[in-house]
Amino acid sequence: MDMNDQKYLVFALCKGRLAFKTLELLEKIGITCEEMKDKDTRKLVFVNEELKCKFFLAKGPDIPTYVESGAADIGVCGSDIIQEENRRVYEVLDLGFGKCRMCVCGPERARELLSHRERIRVATKYPAIAKDYFFNVKNQTVDIIKLNGSVELGPIVGLSDVIVDIVETGSTLKENGLMVLEEVCPLSARVIVNQVSMKMQNERICAIIEKLKKEIQ
Length: 217
Ligand code: PRP
What we know:
34% of the residues lie in helices and 28% in strands. By secondary structure, the chain is an alpha/beta fold. The chain has 2 domains: 9-98 and 188-216, D-Maltodextrin-Binding Protein, domain 2, CATH 3.40.190; 100-185, D-Maltodextrin-Binding Protein, domain 2 (3-Layer(aba) Sandwich).
């Protein structure tokens, strides 16, 4: 028997919004993990002995870190995180869910600052994406302020002029008197694979990717 048959295939999944949808999709292609469905569990790593698969849930921005290092063979997270982290991993599949947009948002008055290419203050959880957008795409010099969440506060309390953030339904913006001013890029959930795993466990990983492709078509 091939040694690789003995190895666990390790999945790193994103805690939160994407987790449920990802598990649902994996279940459809026969990759199940009963233990993981228990919402009250504090357990971090789950095993399916029959399938020789392990699963763990991690914070979104850490998924590419686990996959690049080989601690996980396969990861699922948003394309926002993949762009922001810029890790050496293979991005193999767009799952087509978790769709949202990366946008520049702010109050109406910020529109003018944007169009005049003023040196504005941009608050964001995504400094790399924001930097790339303003400096390379728009050729506009800005000051980037890194925040860790509730970014909408930036323009409201006067920390920044605009924000670069994810917009899904738009209700967070609306409830806080802000609006989309520019669209940076569309986003969705992606599958990433460790570069060594892709070589060493090629058949096994490709079979999973093919099944996923069929399922989401
Ligand atoms: C995200 C994002 C927006 C909100 C957008 O935040 O940063 O705040 O969701 O969704 P909506 O357009 O449907 O309102 P998240 O809930 O992940 O929390 P955080 O900002 O505290 O990280």
